[in-house]
Amino acid sequence: MTVFLLGHSFRYEIENIVRLFFPFSHFSYLTEGSPEGDYILTEIGEGKARVTVSFQGKEETGNRPLSLSPGKGEQEMTLCRLLFSLLEDMTGIHPAWGVITGVRPVKLLTSRIQQGQSREEVGKEFSKEWMANQEKIDLCLETMDAQQPVIQSVKPLGYSLYISIPYCPTRCSYCSFVSQATALKKNRDGIPAYAEHLVKEIYFTAEIARKNGLSLQSVYMGGGTPTAVSPDILRSITDAIKEAFPLSDAIEYTIEAGRADTVTKEMLSVIRQSGATRISINPQTFRDDVLKRIGRQHTAAQVEEAFFLAREMGFSSINMDLIAGLPGDDFDGFCQSLERAIRLDPENITVHALTVKRGADLYTNGEYPMDPTVFQRMVQQAYLRLRQAGYFPYYLYRQKNTPGNLENVGYAKPGQINYYNIVMMEELQTVLGVGANAVTKLVGKNGIHRIYNFKYPDEYFSRFSDILAKKKEIDNFYGEEAKKYGK
Fold this sequence. Notes:
- The chain is of the alpha/beta class.
- It has helices spanning 11-21, 72-91, 105-114, 119-128, 134-146, 148-153, 185-189, 191-211, 231-244, 265-274, 288-293, 300-312, 331-344, 361-365, 372-388, 419-425, 457-462, 464-470, 473-484; strands spanning 2-6, 28-30, 39-45, 48-55, 58-65, 158-165, 167-168, 180-181, 215-223, 252-256, 278-280, 318-324, 348-353, 392-397, 408-412, 430-434, 439-444, 447-452.
- It has four domains: 2-91, 2-Layer Sandwich (Double Stranded RNA Binding Domain), CATH 3.30.160; 105-140, no CATH class; 147-277 and 416-487, no CATH class; 299-308 and 319-411, Transcription Regulator spoIIAA (2-Layer Sandwich).
- The protein contains 19 helices and 18 strands.
- The longest helix is centred in the middle third of the chain and has 21 residues, at 191-211.
């Protein structure tokens, strides 16, 4: 299909709207030419926005007037709303989030509340201007309310620490992360060198944080799968964290033990001794056939064994991830996985809507997910069943290329929300990132500034001095912050 962009430069938003309805189609974008076949024509000119959609032998055109002196934002939104309405009519698909294409809808809603709008006014704006349905508006409001204790606990110079371990036993078919499979010897052989460099960066970053008077509030170790490395390697990393950072000041400390085939008594002992207060053990699904199809080398029974072992060893805060829409799964299978997770009674259950990124094998192999309406039923059932079981939504984010324009939601029992997930997703405080593919996100009165580490372990080794040099941007940022705080 061809998308024409005439009289404007709004390709990014137009593309986002189009992919809500055709998430896995390929498009060409033209600024001139004669339309033929299946096409979408978007145009700004003569005081109006015009859209024509020609699809499967049907053609429909819509026009909307623009004000006499429209700003770029108004033109863009008018064009997007018109395109959205036409595509709804043509396809019969009704994306629940409307024209909200951003990652952080809760942040968007919260900003309106902070500007003085009432909940009712924000709800009307989301419905009328953004074309979101009431179910998603209510979900945003409920999530916003759950986040208030964390928002109130954020210190002006507080920060969170993220540690990246970019290794996994195997690569899942839906994964687009840079994590390397330890099943390959060349990747395993690089782990000791990676850990050695990571420890150096940990000490270097801790000194910068101390020098700038920052206050540690949470620690999160992810990846990848941190437990994909050996217990001794993990211990060398956690010992460095314990020595370099004031962990006694932190509200929480999470280590992901996401793959059941990496969870052993020795590994859990290392995590307990590290001072970590929270872990993740992620089934994704409790169907063995689906686990095998997505490239996981463990069974559902192993997930349960890992969970019970963690409980026996004293872990009282455990998260479990489920994914709606995995290849080979169906609505009944997802509901069975959901019930099995609820029976285990973890403190957090996070429900992801499968997103197929270009870097994932699913995308490369053309193994695209199920009908978006089935996705929607899965996500709706997860909300209803988890609320019934005593969980509530506390953080939410969205990704591109998710069929049905759906969301990922973290659910928690009362008193069990994850601090890091909220401050990271809502951009409430600085996150200092260490390791390959980690991002340092500096948040303050000066706005947000990001520092990107190199993605791959080999590049992380070879350009390590550049990574340390870039960390000096933290000093520059907080030097300006000190001026804002009058210090």
